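fold description:
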Amino acid sequence: MTSAELANHAPSILLDTNVLLWILGNDPRLSKRVQTAVLSPSADIRVSVVSALEIVLKFQAGKLSLDVPIERVLSEVFNCLRSTTILSTGC
């Protein structure tokens, strides 16, 4: 990649599981700076499949309470994995 191409290429952002949950839940703990970076049209957002496993393990251990069924959360995570794009309404 040339330096000009690098300058126009958005860096990849690998979302931490907590940040992913905050985005999906529209959590107020998500800083404006992160919201701006993640919601940018040029953002190259990545989600690890390990995040799905971590969500299940936290849920099963009672360390994660959800307002919606776990299946819905996992569906959103897998939608993120397929699209790798976060929109203002979720992944």
